[in-house]
Structures are given as C-alpha cells and as structure tokens.
Amino acid sequence: MTARRRLVPYGLLAPGAIWLALFFVIPMYFMGELALRSGTFTEGFQPAFEVSNFSDALSGNTDQFVRSFVYAGTATLIALLIAYPLSYAIALRAGRFKLLLLFAVVAPFFTTYLIRTIAWKTILSDDSPAVSVLQFLHLVPEDGRVLATGAAVIAGLTYNFLPFMILPIYASLDRIDTSLIEAGKDLYASSTQTFLRVTLPITAPGIVAGVLLTFIPAVGDYVNAEILGGTGTAMIGNVIQSLYLEQRNYPEAAALSFIMMLAILAVVLVYLRVAGSGAFMGDDEERS
Amino acid sequence: MLVALFALVAAVALAACGGGDTVGGGSDNEVETAQPGPVEGEFNISNWVGYIDKGEGSTIEEFEAKYPGTTVNYSEDINDNSDFFGKIQPLLDQGESGGRSMFVVTDWMAKQMNDLGYLQQIDYADVPNVDANLKESLRSPAFDPDRSFSIPWQSGMTGLLVNKRLAPDVTNINDLFDPQYKGKVTVLTEMRDVIPLMMKADGIDPEDATKEDWLEQIDQLQEAVDSGQLRRFTGNDYIQDLTNENVVAVIGWSGDIALVENDDVEFVMPEDGCILWSDNMVIPVGAPNTAAALAWADFVYDPKVQADISDYVRYVSPVEGIEEVNPSLAEDELVNPPEDFTADCSTQPNPPGSAEDVQEVTESFQAVVTQ
Amino acid sequence: MEAATATTARHVSDSMPARAWAWLRRNALMIFAGLAVVYMLVPILVIGLFSFEKGNDQGELDFAWDGFSIEYWTDAFGQTAVNDSMITSLELAALTMVVATVIGTLMAMALVRYQFFGRRATNLLIILPMATPEIVIGAALLSLFISYNFELGFTSLFIAHVMFCISFVVVVVRSRLIGFDRSIEEAAADLGAKPLTTFRLITLPLLAPGIMAAALLAFALSLDDFVISNFNSGTTVTFPLYIFGASLRGIPVQVNVLATMLFAVTVLAIVLVLWQQRKAEQMAAVRPDPEV
Question: What is the pLDDT of residues C187-207, one digit of tens each?
C-alpha cells in the first residue's frame, strides 16, 4: 500500500512530464547545443564550444534587457491592480452572474491579438477622443501621442495578459466562504483589517500564480512592442526575433534566449522567496 | 527527479544520434532543372494571402479544367519572407519542400534560396508564354539576370505614400527627414527597400553602392531615430496609421494605396525614382510534380488569365498585353505603369560583397530597428 | 488614514456631497469593477462596431468609419478562407484545451498533494516553457519534427499547443489546490468511499473553478497563438495565421463579424448553461467550510 502510494505522484505526473520531456526538453537541448556553435549561416554553424555567443548576445542588448523587465514588471503591477478588485467583485459580489461575467471578461481574448490590437490602435490613434481626454488631463503632453511609445507597449502588455492575472485570482477568491469574511469583520471590526488578515492570505496562491503567469511571458513578448511600440521601445523578444529570422544568427538567438530565461528564473526565485514559495509550491511546512 | 532523469537520458540518447550535423550552410545537392512532363495528379502551391481570387470560376478552377485529372492544392501559408524561410529552410536543407511543387517569394529571398542551392532551374522552352509575355523591364534583374530560377508572380513599387493635405511638399525621400514632420513619418523594416531609396535621394546608384554607402545610410537612419523624427519601423501596418492620420508620409508599397481609406493619401513616385520588386514563382528542390508547376507558370502568363489575376490583386502585373484583354487595367498607372513613370526606378538590390559583408550590413540595420 | 476618513464621513453625514461620498465609498468596488469590465470589453465593442462598417471596395476593413452596412452579417460565412481557418482553430483549441487541462490538472495534483523525489525539478520543468521565447520553442520544435520526418500539419500543431498550455494549466489549478481542505475527502474515505468516488464526488467539484479557469486560459492561448504555430503548421492555416497573412492585403470584414459572433455565442451559451444549472446548483448547495 505504501509502496503503491509512493508511486502515485509519478503516475499523475507521467503524461505531462513525458509530453514536456519529448516536446520541450529535447528540442531545448538542441537549442542549447546550437547556442554554443560557431560559424555563419551561409557557411553552416559547426559544433563547437563558442561561449562568446553568450557575451555577444548580452553586450549591445542591455537596454532592451532592462526595458523588458521594466515594461513587464509595470504591466504586471497594473494588471494586478485591475484584476484583483475585478475578480473580487466577480467571485464574491456577482452572485449567480459570476460565470457570465467571467466569460464576458475572458471571451474578448478568443479574438486574435491582431484584431484586438487593431481595435486598440483605432481607439488610441493620435486624434482620437481617448487621447484628447488624456491630453486634457495632462497625462499626455499637449502635442504628445500614445501610440508608438513605451506607454503604449505597457498598456498593450497589460491588456493582453490580464486574463492570465484574472483567472487564477478568480479561482482562489471563488473558494472564500463569505461567512469567513463576516467572522473576520466581527473579529477585526475594520474591513481593511479583515481584508488584510483573512481575504488576502487565502488568495495569496492566486496572486502569486497570476503574477507569474503575467510577468514570465510578458518579459519575452515581442508582439506588443512591434505593433504598438515605436522607435526605441524594442524588447528582448524583438531582438531574438530579429536575430533568428532577419540576421539568421541562430547561435546568438539561442544564447540570448537562454540568458533571458536565466534572468527570468532569477527574478522568479527572488519573488517566490519574498512572496513565500509555499504559496506557489504548496509545501505544507513552508506554508505554516 | 525520475522525470528529470528520464528527460536527460532521452535528450542525451537523441543528441547522440541527431546532433553534430552542420546547421544551415545550404544544400550540397546538384542543381537540377525542373522536369516537364504530362500534367496530371496533385499539385501543391504556396502563395501569399490575397494573391489570387479563390472564388467560383477562379483561375485555379480554370487550370483544373484545362488539365483534367489535376488537383490544385493552393495554400495561402506565406506571410513574410523571413518567417517562411525560417519554417521551410530546415526542410529544403534536407532536399525536401514539404510537398510543395512551387511557392512565391520576393526577389532577395529567391536569390538567397538559390545561393543555398534550394531552387531548381527553369528551362524557358517549357514555359513559352513566360518567354513571350514577360515584361521587358523585368527580364534581367540583378539578382537573376537570366531569370533562370524565378518567374515574377506580381510586381510592385516601393515609394512614398503621402497625405497631400497634411504634407503637401513631400516629394523626395529626404523630405521625410524634415523636422516639421517629426514623429509623423515611418519607414519599412525591409532594408532592401529603405536604404536604396535613401541612396537614390542622395544621388547614389544602389546598383553601384559600396558597403560603406550602405553603412552610411544606416547611420543616417540611426540619427533620425535618435532625434525622434521616425515614429516607427513598419510592415504594411502603416495602412492604419495613414488612414487614421497618425502619420503624414511613409515609405510604402504602391499596391497598398487602395487599402488606405483616406482620400488625401496618394502614392507619390519619389523624385529620384522607386524600387521595383517582384514576388516570384520558384520551384524548390524535392518538389513533386514539377510538370504541373511549369504548366501553372505558363498558364498564368496567358494574358487572358493574367488579366483576371491582375484585376483582383491590383499590383503591378509582370505580363504584357493584359490591357488588351481588360482595357480598364490600362488606365491605372499603379497597375500598369507607363515606361516613363518608372524610368528612374531601380530593381531591388542586395548589399554588395561577400556573405560576411551582407551579414554586417544586415546586422547594422537590424540594430537600428530593434533598439 | 482609513479610520480618519470614515470619521469625517460620519461627522458631516447630512450634507449632500458627504452622502455622495459615502455612496461612492460603499460602492467603490462595484464601480471600479464596472469600469474594468468596460475596459476589457472596449476592443470587442470596437470590433463589433466595425463589423457593421461599409469597408473598402473589396469588402475589407478600412479602419475609418464612413458608412453603415449589414452586408457582411448577411454574408457572414461568405469568405471560405476565413471560415476554414476559423474552424481549424476552434477544433485545435478545443482539443488542446481538453488534453492540456487533463494532463495539467493531474500534474498539479501530484505537485501539491505529494512530497516526492524530483518535485523541485518538476517545478522547474513547469516554469521553463513559460519563460522560453515563443520563437525559440517554435524553431526548436520544428527541427525536432523535421529530424523525425514527422509530417507538419494539424497533429504537429496539436502537440505544440498542448505543450505550451500545460504549464499554464498547472499553475492555475495549483493555485486553487493549495490550502484545499483535505478533511472532507478524508471524511468521505472514512464513510467508505473509494478513492475514485471521492475524487469524482468531492475533489473534482471543489476544484471545478480552478479547472475551468485553466481550461479557459488554455483555450484562449491556443486560439491566439501565432509564432509557434507559424513554424509548425506546414500548410495548415489557423485563424491567427490567416489574419496575419490577410493583414498584408486587407482583412475581410467577415473576420470582425465572426469575432463578434464568437463572443456573442460564448456569452449566450453561458446564459443558457446558467439557466439550466440553477436548479442543480440549488440542490448541491452543500458548501464546505475551508479553514484559514
């Protein structure tokens, strides 16, 4: 019985782990090997141990690196500030309409990003009412614009990754028993206290998951910068895209990808340490 | 750990048999000539979206009617030269074409593929209509002087798209760099369109330009980026920017003018001429049914067939004599440009020199685009 | 600061502005949520609006409002290329959603419920695919498929889509599983329920919101993917691939029509499901008390 029980997790893991091993780990192994090759595309990239690919990839692209993390971080923060109250309202206040609202909020993302982005470009075009309002509020300079700026890229990232934030937060909020909040109110009196001491801790796993799901893919995104950005707003994803497709420097593209993945992992590990990895891993001992 | 171990073992096992080969570098296969023969069976062609009318009574159906027993699988799976190359190159490198008998790519991409040994040669005896009807101006472009591996599908002009109300005096590429249009102009991400146009405006013939000329123009572009003059680098998403008047003048493609729903926007032939380019039919290595591919190329060079295609696509047709079939096509100088209209235009050039030189120029340009 | 504001509000509670302020404060959450919903829906409204726009002479989107027309709604399925790619994408997304959700949920259960050797490595295996640039995954998978002479098409797309959806499913389902009260399951087991019965009757219903959220995300991810699909599609054309290609030549207005329809059908389907489920929900309104 115990031996069988010990095998249970491996049984549960097997389908996913095998899928990821075959179709992620193995291809990435090839990429890793490619990242160390030397040569040019026309001559052919020969097997080697060309560590300089990594330093080449990093030098000259530091601006884009910093920008990617700043843009993605800002977008994640804004997405959290929008998604939490929204998910809270849907999960706890919308009653039996909550499913309807949840789907209504997510369904726009069933439309291809190109169509959504064209819509945003229409809304935010230089002479549009939306931009005039922003100019009136002095959020945008009198002769300024929104499109083709870093702000537009951040706005695009925020919008396009919002479902990644909303869904896990919703899933964790939805299990809150409202009687718990009532009890909290009796105990702590102020609703702020109740929120901080009852609601927030219960939803912490959802927040942690949402932040990860938003931040990680946002760092490597290139579409928003390409469509909504202007000159000087390129992210690291755009550089990788260019290295791979335009310059056909596969080794450097692969090397840059690995550097980016390592940097993301580092940020994620620091974040999990601060946020408490229990909220992500579900370790009982770490949670208590 | 078991899982990680499994993955590792699998990866290493795989690497042992799969790794080690050279990546890229082109094919070692001998250059073949596309074989003619009886036209029958399945025929797969890949083209760009919207490059043919697929509706009822279409060119495809006419072709199938002319050659009974032939089935045309026409896929619109090409969006972008670089993207397409990225996805088909590993196949071509193995001497396969993914089942495609023919596909359509732009001049420089056709050249790049041919240089790598990925394309079959074409014997003009097998395509008499092409021999007879290909326009004189397209017969010997620099990248393929004998048209030995490429047959134009449609052509186009790269020049200026200008909002005449907001920027009435933009007539030259250098006018784009006038400070009064700061943040209101864009250029293409396509280096072989932008840099040669800038050279022409500076009096340099792109065909004779040196690597230094290319690099110098790229530096000028960098300055325009630094000063905020250039709003962004675009594909043809400038269509929306022009329609909504986010921009007043751009470097763009003639065929797009029909898509800009703003009466003030016009195609302006730059004072120093445009860049002429073609998207070309090519027959890749390992292509099945090359007989049907040759028959198809010949078929679309029949002016009667071409007139239908041209009427739908509204780019520049590479075929002589379509205006006799459909006189309305003669009126539009963007579809059927008279010779004096394009007199100063150049074909799309490649940076000069060795592969390394081209790579250096490409890298400098891309560094400007992705900053 | 919180308390101070509250006192001031109570102190002058008779004046109009104060009452308005109090109302605002009471309903701040709902007002904010309402604005957020509007924000989320604005693009779909614009898309819907422009599905009624005249378009250009070739029936393509022209980004500027210059005339109302319902011709594209009456001819909603008139563009075969649009329909075909849409059907391909919906099939692909549905299949991906089912498989990725099942696989991912099992993984999440293993990771949260069990302490086992290799847990950290597995966690890494989950995070890495999300952190990998799409183009690198796309290109790497392509070389894999080609080196095994695997024919590119729907199947290769399906493999790729499930691959990149798994991680997202695991992370979402796991966030629901953490802090999950196990005592109900134990109670069921004490009462003699077999493990599978417990799973079906207790665990699954409690996990449902997490699984549904994950499935929704997987569906949207698959339906929206461009980069990885572009590499591994062969000659299969999905909706995003079609749109991208069409954008070079002008996007048929029918694309907006179908997008609007898809949204409307989704929302209508939910309304219907809610209608059906109301009674069932009332009957199964047993709600366990999760502990803090």
Answer: 888 888 887 888 888 888 888
C110 inside domain: yes
Dist CA A207 CA B317 (whole Å): 57
> Is the pTM here over 0.80, yes or no?
yes
The per-residue pLDDT for range A161-195, each reduced to its tens digit, is 999 999 999 988 887 777 777 777 777 667 788 88
Contacts of B44 in chain C (CB under 8 A): 235
Q: Which residue has the higher pLDDT, C56 or A157?
A: A157
Residue C89 lies in a domain: yes
Chain A residues touching residue B356 (CB < 8 angstroms): 40
ipTM: 0.88
Q: How far apart, in whole angstroms, are the C-alpha atoms of residue B149 and residue B255?
A: 25
- C159-171: average pLDDT: 95
B67 three-class SS: coil
Q: Which residue of B has its CA nearest to C65?
A: B261
Topology classification of domain B156-274+350-369: D-Maltodextrin-Binding Protein; domain 2 (3.40.190)
- A-chain CB neighbours of B367 within 8 Å are 60
What is d(CA B205, CA B225) in angstroms, rounded to the nearest whole number?
24
pLDDT at site B4: 54
Are C271 and A100 within 8 A, CB to CB? yes
What SS3 class is residue B155? strand
Report the residue of B22, B85, B232 to disrupt the A interface, i.e. the one with the largest count of A CBs within 10 Å: B232
Locus of tokens 């953490």: C178
Contacts of C226 in chain A (CB under 8 A): 112-114, 223
Distance from CA of C244 to the nearest CA of A (A): 7
Q: Do domains B32-149+277-335 and B156-274+350-369 have the same CATH topology?
A: yes
Indicate which of A167, A212, A247 best probes the interface with C, i.e. most C CBs within 10 Å of its own CB.
A167
For every residue of B245-261, DSSP letters joined together read TS-SEEEEEGGGGGG--
